[in-house]
Amino acid sequence: MILKKIKEVIATRKLYSADRSKRVIVKIGKPEKFPDSSDYYCPYQIIGLGNEKARYAAGVDAVQALQLALKMIGADLYTSKEARIGSLVWEGGCKGELGFPVPDSISDLAP
Known about the structure:
The protein is α+β, with helices and mostly antiparallel strands. It contains 2 helices and 6 strands. The longest helix is centred in the middle third of the chain and has 17 residues, at 62-78. The protein is globular, with a radius of gyration of 14 Å.
């Protein structure tokens, strides 16, 4: 399935470069059922870090789709050039903490 945009945004988070010259916005959409399945997908979009296309995570129910979307966002953020050089910050976190979980396979990237 290809997403063109998020239909209904349910949450956003703003991150910044350390010097505040760059803003990154994370948008999370409402989990929805796939058109041809009983499974769900949760759309998300990261604006300000390269490719800004809408993506999604899939799960057997809305909660799993949301949980996996949060981890995918975390993976995208923590593996970005900006995070690797320490120039991406979130107002609610400590230095290097971006406020999203990551998959176990890259847990060493998150503080």
